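Protocol step 4 of 6: structure prediction from sequence.
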Amino acid sequence: MVHILPWYNLSGRAPSSRTIAKAEAYYAKVALHETFHLAARGGYTDKQMALAAFELTKASGLPGSDEEAGLYGYSEYWDDRLSEHCPELKVN
């Protein structure tokens, strides 16, 4: 099971088509990211997924250490690779 936090529209107005598209991209990206975590028995960590993405793409930006990565560095690296190869998932 994957838990996804809701996309909030704090304006109080009806969402625009752009806001709806951003919300849909957000949900798709988070669902894909979290599903990859569950792809292995016991799950993959963000670090494992980031290292695999690096081996496939050699893209810069991979944190050099756990300390450099902090809480979200590996997750953000992995998400950036997803967004590069699945542009429909970009949330801007």
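Step 5 (inspection) to follow. DSSP finds four helices and no strands in the chain.
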